[in-house]
């Protein structure tokens, strides 16, 4: 989906330095972001200067409602 604001999915981003382990989701967690601006922009954004290495990004929705696209 495109756009900003409160229209569309409420995404949640997690950046891992290395791999992601679903059994231990805080291991290797470097950065997270839920809302760019609470109440006015539910999109997520991570901005960071990264060094050379391996990173994993996990993208999910904030609530339990499934996100569908057309």
H/E series: EEE
Structural class category: mainly beta
Which parts are unreliable, with pLDDT below 50 for 5 consecutive residues or more? none
Strand content: 25-35%
Share of helix, binned: under 10%
Tell me the major beta sheet: 3 strands, antiparallel
The dominant shape is: globular
Report strand order across the widest sheet. Answer: 2-1-3
Gap between N and C termini: 9 Å
Oligomer: single chain
Rg calculated over all Cα atoms: 13 Å
Summarize the structure.
The protein is mainly β.
Secondary structure blueprint with pairings:
Elements: E1 11-17, E2 29-33, E3 55-61
Antiparallel strand pairs: 1-2, 1-3
Your description of this structure?
This protein has 70 residues and is mainly beta. It has no helices and three strands. It has strands at 11-17, 29-33, 55-61. It has a three-stranded antiparallel beta sheet with strand order 2-1-3, with no helix packed on it. It is globular, with a radius of gyration of 13 Å.
């Amino acid at each position: 989906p495109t756009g900003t604001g409160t229209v569309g999915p409420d995404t949640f981003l997690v950046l891992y330095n290395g791999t992601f382990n679903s059994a231990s989701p805080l291991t290797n967690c470097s950065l997270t972001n839920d809302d760019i601006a609470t109440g006015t922009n539910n999109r997520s954004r991570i901005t960071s200067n990264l060094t050379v290495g391996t990173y994993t990004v996990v993208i999910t929705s904030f609530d339990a409602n499934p996100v569908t696209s057309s």
